[in-house]
Design goal:
Blueprint lengths: L10 E6 L2 H7 L2 H8 L3 E5 L14 E4 L4 H13 L4 E3 L2 H4 L10 H5 L5 E2 L3 E4 L5 H8 L5 E4 L12 E4 L12 E5 L6 E8 L2 E8 L6 H5 L4 E3 L3 H6 L4 H10 L5 H15 L3 E8 L7 E8 L10 H30 L4 E3 L5 E3 L1
Parallel strand pairs: 1-2, 1-3, 3-4, 5-14
Antiparallel strand pairs: 6-9, 7-8, 7-9, 8-12, 10-11, 10-13, 13-14, 15-16
């Protein structure tokens, strides 16, 4: 895809984000880098109706309430060729951990799985659900709702059956898979992908299972997992971790993007410590913190340019459709500059 638009052409992207997201995402480096390539990033005033602002060739957002959804629908009706990034109905699928990973099951990729997991809506059925799914301890207990709230990020490690006594339902239980203390965070912006390594929960041995608490909140997990590891050894662990093949990461990202019908998301992927060819996706997030990715401007701006060309293609298709529907002959100039009928 071209590095910029045609000379003199500008592509206007309106963004609607919570203040915290604006400060972390819309950095000067991104604004300048995009501007030089024909992309203008324009803040949307949340105190005014969207339909009264613009014009925008595209709108990207991280808002989900009913009023905002209505405004997006009205904007799309008035601007049918504008690109909305992303449709709320697609985003909402990632806000529920019961269905979040369903899209992964649709992918036709060898050696890619999701962990065993179960949704439990009552404490009385905890043991039964675990048994029905064939799950083994340790387990990770996650809130059902996955959004920007603090409660959504509260998780616990359940080491044994007694640990279930401290769980409040409804809850999603996910089987923990040892993965060498390293997680691969894959950031997707349209066709553009970047994979980075991050420190994760260390492997849990049988010895640790037998000499530990029953239930450990993630806020205290570092003591349990890394009590015997120095900063230096952790750094060596991270450095030694082998990245997944780029062809594999790109194929997973492409298929997952199509299944989710989203442009902006990331997914957390681990490699099974017992089988180096087995990868598992354990979480998917909408519109993640791209600014944490090195040179994120060079990842997002090409995505914006792709949106610009997609918008132009929709406009061309609309013009052609209108010309065909009128039944009028199209015209063009001959070699002498005279208008002739086709």
């Amino acid at each position: 895809m071209p590095e910029s638009l045609l000379a003199g052409e500008r592509f206007r992207i309106g963004y609607a984000l919570a203040p915290r997201s604006v400060s972390s995402f819309i950095q000067d480096s991104l604004i300048v880098y995009a501007e030089k390539r024909g992309i203008d990033l324009i803040p949307i005033d949340l105190e005014k109706p969207l339909i009264e602002q613009g014009p925008f060739d595209s709108v990207f957002h991280k808002l989900y309430d009913a009023e905002w959804k209505k405004q997006l629908e009205e904007f799309s009706l008035e601007n049918p060729t504008a690109i909305i990034v992303d449709p709320i109905e697609s985003i909402e699928k990632l806000h529920n951990r019961v269905s979040m990973l369903d899209a992964v099951k649709q992918l036709k990729i060898e050696n890619l799985e999701i962990p065993l997991q179960a949704f439990v809506d009552s404490n009385e059925s905890l043991q039964d659900e675990i048994a029905n799914q064939g799950m083994k301890f340790p387990l990770i207990a996650k809130a059902v709702i996955a959004n920007a709230t603090a409660d959504a990020h509260q998780m616990s490690l359940v080491l044994n059956g007694d640990g279930l006594n401290g769980i409040k339902t409804p809850i999603v239980l996910q089987e923990f898979v040892n993965h060498g203390g390293v997680i691969f965070k894959v950031y997707v912006a349209g066709d553009h992908v970047k994979c980075v390594k991050r420190k994760s929960l260390g492997d849990i041995t049988e010895e640790k299972l037998g000499n530990s608490e029953n239930l450990i909140p993630f806020s205290l997990i570092s003591y349990f997992a890394d009590n015997d590891q120095s900063d230096e050894s952790l750094a060596k662990l991270m450095e030694a971790a082998v990245m997944p093949p780029s062809s594999f990461v790109n194929e997973v990202s492409k298929q997952l993007r199509r299944a989710l019908k989203l442009h902006l998301f990331n997914f957390d992927m681990i490699r099974d410590s017992r089988d180096g060819n087995r990868y598992l996706i354990i979480d998917i997030n909408y519109f993640p913190g791209y600014a944490k990715v090195p040179e994120y401007e060079q990842m997002l701006t090409p995505c914006f340019l792709d949106l610009a060309h997609q918008k132009r293609s929709k406009e061309t298709a609309n013009i052609d459709h209108e010309a065909d529907s009128t039944g009028h002959k199209t015209q063009e100039a001959d070699s002498n500059g005279h208008i002739v009928d086709n």
